[in-house]
Design a protein that fits this description.
The chain is of the alpha/beta class. It has helices at 16-27, 41-51, 67-77, 92-100, 113-124, 132-157, 165-175, 180-187, 191-205, 210-219; strands spanning 7-12, 32-38, 55-58, 82-87, 105-108, 129-130. The protein is elongated.
Length: 226
């Protein structure tokens, strides 16, 4: 396979032994070309853009800038660069933030050589890849989210509070952090009318700040917390 057709990889891990081991392993395959190494998140961000790599094999816990932060920055500048997280952590506290960062896959460090190679090829082809344990976490979170949405939908349907339908619409947008000007545009109202609705909502509910309005919206199922 010619060098220009190989998958160009950046390996980012602050542990030299792990990083060098990955580089040696990947170098055995004619499909891969490790073009750079990074020992912290800042280097990962800079080198990924400098070499315009296909994939960053990214550790999460690194000094100066975490792999999570580096992933967000890389994706914001060049979404075409794929990020495959390689981590020892397999709990929701790590997995879900990584997925929300825009990473294309999550691989555990206890995986074997075949799994690593398969993960890299899958992500390079535009597919998502998760280790079995990570897939289970993703599935459980998805099912929990569906249950939350169902419960909040029921709460919303059973609502018999003091707000009118229009006021509920305005409240939903407030809870989604929309400005009064944005709400006016979305509902085809004047900003002054939106101001009046907000004032009426606060008076009816006897609430005095946005945080309290958001809490009310969540409690009654008007918005779903993701």
């Amino acid at each position: 396979m010619s060098s220009k057709n190989r998958i160009r990889i950046l390996v980012a891990d602050d542990h030299s032994v792990v990083r060098k081991g990955l580089v040696s392993l990947l170098s055995l395959s004619p499909q891969f070309h490790v073009v750079a190494e990074a020992e912290n998140g800042i280097q990962a961000f800079n080198l990924a853009l400098q070499y315009n790599v296909d994939i960053v094999l990214m550790d999460i816990s690194m000094p100066e800038m975490s792999g999570l932060e580096a992933t967000v920055k890389i994706k914001s500048v060049n979404p075409a660069i794929k990020v495959l997280v390689l981590s020892a952590f397999d709990n929701q506290d790590y997995v879900l933030p990584v997925l929300r960062s825009g990473a294309n896959g999550y691989l555990l460090k206890d995986g074997d050589t075949d799994e690593i190679e398969h993960a890299i090829i899958s992500v390079a082809e535009g597919k998502a890849f998760f280790s079995p344990k990570i897939s289970q976490i993703v599935l459980e979170d998805y099912l929990q989210q569906i249950q939350r949405e169902q419960h909040q939908q029921q709460d919303s349907e059973n609502y018999n509070g003091p707000l009118s339908k229009r006021e509920i619409e305005v409240l939903k947008f407030i809870a989604e952090s929309k400005t009064h000007h944005e709400i006016a545009q979305l509902l085809f109202l004047s900003t002054r009318t939106v101001d009046t609705h907000v004032n009426n909502i606060m008076k009816k509910l006897n609430l005095h700040d946005t945080a309290a309005l958001v809490t009310y919206a969540v409690k009654h199922g008007f918005i779903v917390i993701k």
